[in-house]
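Bench notes, afternoon.
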Amino acid sequence: MTVSSPVKPVTQLYRARQGEITPQMARVAEKEHVTGAFIRDEVAQGRLVIPANIGHGNLDPAGIGEGVTCKINTNIGGSPIRSSAEEELRKLELALALGSDAVMDLTVGPYIRDIRRTLLSRCPAPLGTVPVYEAIEQVDNPEDLTPDLIFSVIENQAKDGVDFMTVHAGLLRAHVPMAVNRLAGIVSRGGSLMARWMVCHHKENPLYTDFDRLLDICRRYDVTLSLGDGLRPGALADASDEAQFAELKTLGELVLRCREADVQVMVEGPGHVPFDQIAMNMQKEKEWCHGAPFYILGPIVTDIAPGYDHITSAIGATMGAFSGAAMLCYVTPREHLGLPNLEDVRQGVVAYKIAAHAADVARHRPGARDRDDRLSAARAAFRWDDVFNLSIDPQRARMMHEESHVRKEDIRKEFCSMCGEKHCAVKMSRSVRERLKDEG
């Protein structure tokens, strides 16, 4: 049923359906090297979203959809154990400097609102949240949550300028028994909270039963809904099971309701998935969720590498992006072990920029390989500063190159530090080319 509201919608979806190319669409088109009409049409069809809350004044919009370059999201946020706006700002600045396209504030604890407002004031990228994290801080026990409290938090976050929100509205009471006997159970924080609430109250998920109320808030502020996968698998043994797919089908139903209400929507995807099941998961989301942009965590392709899950997940993320995922949620080396520090954020963002870029090159996105070719040309010409500046992490590339030279005067010489001057393959190749040129 279409939501009726006395307030005219302000969403990018509504405006695209009216034939308008908004400033946000024009900016996305500029970034993606495509026409504004293409972006408008993709938004109008629901295949692309531009999270752009009308209250986020310093926003530089990004387009999230299969038809444009794959985006990456960086999760930051403190906890009651370690939480300060200053630390999260440092993480934000590093993530943006390394090219993160979106940021989520997953802070839990007493300073949620202060940290969120600080981040929003300094974040030109789309910023997302999980509103139930703030709601749970206002009660003693999860079962004390009320629908009015949840929706009050959602509206306050929308007023603050949050661009996209993860809501676990597709996790139904009937799905919970399917998941509790899994090897890893329910690993989503928001999903487990909603499951506990439903079991304690013997009621259906209020985010599902009152979904029209949620849509009305989103229409007024242009909040993009990110339909959370509360039953995402947290172990390979739980991947692609009946609980995960039952929730995914419900999310597909909610996608249609969002579009009827002119609300932008994307769908979140699985965490731990064997490599051979990734493409199948992407295809099912496209089919069941009507082509809505897919925003995936990893997937992590093996469970045996705590401390290295930025690698195990980047492997899966590359396949996921190549198979159609629109945005990748980064994973850091500290996944499953603790909150990421600055170095963890660096390694997670870099791993995911590589994954997204590799998929863009393989999918022949306009201009995707240009940077690779420029860097390769610079390497062949020993233009080291250009090599560093074109790298995903210039600081790390420069440091490693300089550390490889015992004599600092050799740093700018025309040979690579791996082979040395006498054995440098690139230098010898150049001499061969020059000799052949001289011989005609």
